[in-house]
Amino acid sequence: MRAVLALLLIALPLTATAKKPTAAQLEAQVKTLTEERDDLKQRLAGTEDLQQELVAARKARDVARSEGETARKEAEQLKASLRENQGGSDALLKELQEARQAVADSMSKMAQMTAEGEELRRKASTTPVEGDLVTVSEEIVPARPVNLNRVTPRLKSTGLLSGRPKGVVVVNVLVSDKGDVLAARLLQGLPDSSPEAAVANEACVDAAKRIVFDPAASKDGKTRFKVWQGVGFYLD
Predict the structure, then answer these.
(1) Which of 147, 159, 150, 232 lies closest to 199 in space, CA to CA?
(2) 223 and 157 in contact (C-beta within 8 Å)?
(3) What count of other Cβ atoms lies within 10 Å of the Cβ of residue 36?
(4) Spatial contact of 135 and 179, defined as CB atoms under 8 Å apart
(5) Do residues 198 and 186 lie in contact, with contact meaning Cβ atoms separated by under 8 Å?
(6) What are the CA-CA distances from residue 102 to residues 83, 96, 114, 162 (Å)?
(7) Neighbouring residues of 14: CB distance < 8 A, sequence distance ≥ 6
(8) Taking a C-beta distance cutoff of 8 angstroms, is the pair 170, 188 a contact?
(9) Is there a contact between 174 and 181 (Cβ–Cβ < 8 Å)?
(10) In 3D, which of 225, 228, 230 has the Cα closest to residue 204?
(11) Total Cβ atoms within 10 A of residue 146
(12) Which domains does the chain have, with CATH numbers?
């Protein structure tokens, strides 16, 4: 069996093999998978949800403020009615009490929404700390594999006449701040849907779990982070 070499999509170029694709092809795949899938999916998953929560919190706060203002006006109207009718009925008094309670509830809800909005804004602007899950960017040095060339997918032939699958398989790995792979998932499998390809795809996912990394860190190297990164396997 020919040696199967692995490559890191973001931090490293594809490892040279006896029959590797052209550099332009590998670079195109690295850029596409890193910039369009990994970066977009993680950034959107990590920040778009937070932005939506901020927008929802602001809307809820505005609704609570509007409800409180409406209840206050209603209470003022009831007070005016009571002043005009000194002997107001029990029903009016009850409505006034309910209006006051509505004002109190609305004010409490508005305060809660304001506090939640502030907390979300604080989270959005907080500098990541040791162990946080971050997206690889210009401010983050990607994780670097230390045993990449020693990790090979364990491929098994499904028949005497079946050939070895060939192509590039890309696996997304979650690298902890200690350099361990916490999870791995297939990003791009082999182009065909044969049983051999399915076995090869799974073998690459299993191989990615055995990679040990020098964890991602801040530019000064003082803070280490958890990141999702792509790893490519070229099967020849």
Answers:
(1) 159
(2) no
(3) 10
(4) no
(5) no
(6) 21, 10, 18, 74
(7) 7, 20, 21, 26, 30, 168, 232, 234
(8) yes
(9) yes
(10) 230
(11) 12
(12) 5-46+130-235 (no CATH), 47-125 (1.10.287)
Side chain identity at residue 77, one-letter code: Q
Q: Residue type for 170, please? A: V
Q: Find the helix or strand (DSSP H, E) in which 134 lies.
A: strand 133-134
C-alpha span between 200 and 185 (Å, rounded): 14
Chain centroid, CA 158 distance in Å: 37
Which residues lie below 8 Å from residue 70, measured CB to CB, with a gap of 6+? Answer: none
> Of 40, 57, 100, which Cα lies nearest the Cα of 75?
100
For the whole prediction, is pTM greater than 0.85? no
Q: What is the pLDDT of residues 165-194, one digit of tens each?
A: 889 999 999 999 999 999 999 999 999 888
Is 16 buried (19+), middle (13-18) or exposed (0-12) by CB count in 10 A?
Answer: exposed
d(CA 128, CA 140) in angstroms, rounded, equals 11
In this predicted model, what pLDDT tens digit does every residue of 110-159 receive, in sequence order? 888 888 767 656 655 567 788 889 988 888 999 999 988 888 888 776 55
Among 186, 181, 180, which Cα is nearest to 199's? 186
